[in-house]
Amino acid sequence: MKKILAIVLAVLMVAGCTVAFASCGGNDDTIKIGVSGPLTGGAALYGTAVKNAAELAIKEINDKGGLKNGVKLELISYDDKADGNNVATGYASMLEAGMQLSLGCVTSGAALEFKKLSKEDNVFFLTPSATADKVPEFDNGYQMCFADSNQGGEAAKYVNSLNLDKIGILYRSDDAYSTGIYNQFKANLKEGITTVDAAFTGEAPTDMSAQITLLKDCKFIFCPIYYTPASTFMTQAKDIIATDAVYYGCDGFDGIESAEGFDISVIPQKVSMLSHFDSKATTGVAGDFVTNYTAAYGKETLNQFGASAYDCIYALAGALNAAIDAGKEVTADTTAEEMCKILQEQFNGDYKFTGVTGTDVTWQSNGYVTKTAKYIVIKEANAQ
Predict the structure, then answer these.
(1) Cβ proximity of 230 and 24 under 8 Å
(2) What is the pLDDT of residue 32?
(3) pLDDT digits over 271-310, tens only?
(4) Span 104-159, pLDDT tens digits
(5) Gap between the Cα atoms of 83 and 177, Å rounded
(6) Which residues lie below 8 Å from residue 299, measured CB to CB, with a gap of 6+?
(7) Which of 36, 121, 128, 195 could tie 308 with a disulfide, CB 3.0–4.6 Å?
(8) How far, in Å, are 140, 262, 343, 350, 369 from residue 144 at the CA level?
(9) Cβ distance 253 to 378 under 8 Å?
(10) Which of 127, 143, 26, 39 is nearest to 86 (CA)?
(11) 87-96 and 2-15 helices, crossing angle to 10°
């Protein structure tokens, strides 16, 4: 880590710190929370939502006086472009900027790199959206999102209830997120359901004709993929796949209706997903979040990635407040290692959290979250 940090410092001296991370300098009287995610590129909708929602939560908390002891929070964000190769540089720059705890990474591939670095320095992280089972492998890592094994299992549970005898599956074979959910889904699918499996590679394939040919006779297609390839597939398949077919995704579908260059209204099929957040909510804490987020940032990046990040900040603040109540010293000078011990005690104890994405949320000792999944319809089938 020291070698990486030395290299990064040399780069920053030449390039300027604002190139590397969002909060250069910052406030020395705040607890600094890092987050690494795609702010540019094909998954930018996710990273932008996470950054926006985390900043919204921090502003709300700070406007009310910060933590119980008056200490306020600050976000440090880094654009990793959803590429694990960029994580080490970003991690080192955020650490140099004073990161004491973190939201980890937005995407699974990047998070698998982040977890190794954060373990070396005992930086506690609670990721909003990196779902790979191995993300919380070490005792400093936790998830607010469902792990792939949970997503795959929950998705299979829903499909098992539909009495289908044949389904299609569209997945990305070179992506940890997609293959992780795919494997768990297949493992939990009940006997008697035949699957037609269509795989692709790459973040944003431009030609999905081979996959469409494989899946053209399927009336239900499970898609554990991100919104960019999903929107390409749906657009190219809209006149080939049966109009009464159903697309069913996981959290990677979130925000697909706002994907650049994609008009979901021309897709005749029903589009749905497994989620822990309903972006159409109008009441309760979820409704308040929707109202406040759209007022600040509009609807384009309103998705469960942001909702989960919003909950991460409040869950971390709640855990720190619980630690303060228990007599722990939590200040802007608390080291990352000390902060990790404080938060581990809370998350491994009887700490519960209620927020936008769930009520009575708890965490298992392996870092996995326990809460209820929802079936969300993004778009009904077009009227015939």
Answers:
(1) no
(2) 98
(3) 999 988 888 889 999 999 999 999 999 998 998 899 999 9
(4) 999 999 999 999 999 999 999 999 999 999 999 999 999 999 888 888 999 999 99
(5) 13
(6) 258
(7) 128
(8) 14, 29, 14, 16, 6
(9) yes
(10) 39
(11) 80
Looking up tokens 């939590």 gives 330
Sign of the dihedral defined by the CA atoms of residues 101, 336, 138, 3, in that order: positive
- The candidate with the shortest Cα–Cα distance to 125, out of 109, 138, 110, is 138
Helix (H, G, I), strand (E, B) or coil at 73: strand
d(CA 128, CA 276): 11
Instruction: Count CB neighbours of 288 within 10 A.
Output: 13
Q: Which amino acid is at 284?
A: G
Give me the DSSP letters along 271-310.
EEEEES--TT--SHHHHHHHHHHHHHH-STT-SHHHHHHH
Q: Is 216 helix (H, G, I), strand (E, B) or coil?
A: coil
| Identity of residue 91 | Y
Paired strand residues for 57: none
pLDDT tens across 18-43, in order?
Answer: 334 444 334 679 999 999 999 999 88
Cα atoms in the Cβ-side hemisphere of radius 13 Å centred on 71: 17
Which residue in 113, 209, 139 sits closest to 170, CA to CA?
209
What's this model's pTM, rounded to 2 decimal places?
0.78
Neighbours of 154 (CB within 10 A): 22
Token look-up 């955020």 returns 94
The rounded distance, in Å, linking the Cα atoms of 233 and 366 is: 36
- Distance spanning both ends of the chain, measured CA to CA: 59
Q: From CA 369, how far away is CA 357, in angstroms rounded?
A: 11
Instruction: Look at residue 2 and tell me whether its pLDDT is greater than 70.
Output: no
Helices 108-121 and 176-188, packing angle to 10 deg: 100
96 within 8 A of 8, measured Cβ to Cβ: yes
Three-class SS state of 152: helix
Burial (CB count within 10 angstroms: exposed 0-12, middle 13-18, buried 19+), residue 11: middle
Q: How far apart are CA 105 and CA 311, in angstroms?
A: 15
pLDDT at 384: 61
As a whole number of angstroms, the distance between CA 277 and CA 251 comes to 9
User: Tell me, what DSSP letter sits at residue 128?
Assistant: S
DSSP conformation class of 101 = E
Sequence-ordered strand ranges (E) for 219-299:
220-223, 246-249, 270-275
